[in-house]
Amino acid sequence: xxxxxxxxxxxxxxxxxxxxxxxxxxxxxxxAFRTLWxxxxxxxxxxxxxxxxxxxETRKPEFLAINPNGHVPAIxxxxxxxxxxxxxNLYLARKHDKGLWPKNVADEGRAFMWSxxxxxxxxxxxxxxxxxxxxxxxxxxxxxxxxLPKIDAMLKILDQALAGKDYLLGGSFSVADLNVASVxxxxxxxxxxxKEVPKxxxxxxxxxxxxxxxxx
Length: 216
Known about the structure:
This protein is of the alpha+beta class. It has two domains: 22-95, 3-Layer(aba) Sandwich (Glutaredoxin), CATH 3.40.30.10; 105-214, Glutathione S-transferase Yfyf (Class Pi), Chain A, domain 2, CATH 1.20.1050.10. Helix content is 50%, strand content 7%. The protein has helices at 32-42, 61-64, 85-95, 105-135, 141-161, 175-189, 198-208, 211-214; strands at residues 22-25, 47-49, 74-77, 80-83. The chain has a four-stranded mixed sheet with strand order 2-1-3-4, with helices on one face. Strand 3 and strand 4 (80-83) form a beta hairpin. The protein is globular.
């Protein structure tokens, strides 16, 4: 059965490549935002299937064939099926060398480091607050109270890392910035006060102010 037209604003697929070979699963309001931003940043042609975990769509057999974990985002890139937002974004940035992939092995290591940090430190700290305020309002005030000091500590670490530079790997925006900023976008949603971490505040504004982030 022929694939429907791509849900993308971009038309710059390379000659000879299958149109719409990349499918991104997950609604923009979910963690799939991270991968949709990456695809837009890279100027890729893609199709978006805006599945919502709350609707039960991610537990259907056809999606579990893509990601047995039943979570979004996931991708099918011409038969390459991946899940986990940070892994997907690292893969896409590496495959489509359009300036977001690091230029040396040391910075590659740092990009991996910051991408893992975004999940183990940043998301882990922010998630209890997100759940208590938006997902299940008022369900875990104690969990939120315990998370707030962890958020402060996490932000201070990032603020120190940004000392003397505009972006995590130096002077230009990279996959490391996109991955961390896409997670830290929750801080904006939660109205976390960033006045004590001005470098993070400025950096996050630069990242989320990029056109690709705004349309994702």
